[in-house]
Specification:
Strand content: 15-25%
Number of strands: 3
Bound molecules: zinc ion
Helix content: 40-55%
CATH class: Mainly Alpha
CATH topology: Single alpha-helices involved in coiled-coils or other helix-helix interfaces
Distance between the termini: 44 Å
Number of domains: 1
Largest sheet: 3 strands, antiparallel
CATH architecture: Up-down Bundle
Order of helices and strands: HHHEEE
CATH superfamily: Immunoglobulin FC, subunit C
Shape: globular
Radius of gyration: 16 Å
Length: 98
Amino acid sequence: MNKFQKRKNNAKTVALDRIKELFRQAEIRPDYANRYVSLARKISGRHKVRIPPELKRKFCKNCGVYHSSKTLRIRLNKGKKTYFCLNCKTFLRVPYKP
Ligand SMILES: [Zn+2]
């Protein structure tokens, strides 16, 4: 690994840490949660870092709202988990194993 690759790799680690920290803060401060989600998505796009799978379902892919009990409804049917966003009224179906 040359020094440029190393620097790039380091930037990605920092970006991932920031994304995780933003989601942690979003849980603590619900009034800033939507802002933190938009920042995390910007960082993820800029550095080509994926948002970790356990955080991926915590916001709406379509409108970017942070999901809490007020903005999300989850229903299970026919082996699929349906995430319904109450803010923009779109849904996401994810298969699951019972
Ligand atoms: Zn939405």
